[in-house]
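Hi everyone,

Forwarding the result from last night's run.
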Amino acid sequence: MRSVTPASGLAEALVPRIAAAARRPSAFTGPAQPLTVGLTGPQGSGKSTLAAKLAPLLGERGLRAAVLALDDIYLTKAQRQDLARRVHPLLATRGVPGTHDVALGANTMQDMRRPGVALVPRFDKAGDDRLPRSEWRPVEGPVDVILFEGWCVGARPQPDEALAAPVNALERTHDQAGVWRRYVNGMLNGPYDDLFGPVIGFQVLLRAPAFAMVLGWRQQQEHELIARTGAGQSDAELAVFVQHYERLSRWIDAEMPDRADVVVRLGPDRQVVEVSERRN
């Protein structure tokens, strides 16, 4: 695939491949089941922007596309607090596998496949809680393409031996026995496998130059959120928050490129440096 620079150029380059996959009979797609595209990348890498650009471009090709964000199917604050009491305190913080409502995500995708209006959940990051159903986003079904975007969409579990050593200060201090990271990995090997494994028919991976860049990207997002809503995390709080994502972000960056349909390498400014396709 040719190299592209702006996000709009990336979307235009991806559309023909996605459209071809959506129209190709396979184990994932058929007349009554849309193609689900996994759009995966670290925090702040531009997944939401890419999904928003892809949907209308696919529409121009006669394909009805809808976006489902992994961020919008987080468990409620009360549910995560209960999980933190029962399993591990770090599970109160949204982000890792185990802090999403997998059944809600699966049911929403099923609703998108049927005729009629599907309600897509919405999560309020400023309030750290799911919005009431009355504020969910309506989507007219059935859709042809589901753009499923999220930082760990399509992730696979790590080998057990990789869980032994902590990857950062958060794990060394707050997960000394490895309970949290083993729970997260177990979720990938269980419920999330049902959400990711048999569902995703086309995988796109956005890669950061290094994980160290992710904090700056995430801080920029938070500054925009604060400017918009007046609420958000400080830079110091974000530095801790991002550590919750580090282990799996590094693993995805190492493991997923060899199996993704398209890999997008980003530069420090989030501009597209290189786009490569998997050879069948």
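The first helix runs from residue 7 to 22.

Cheers,
N.
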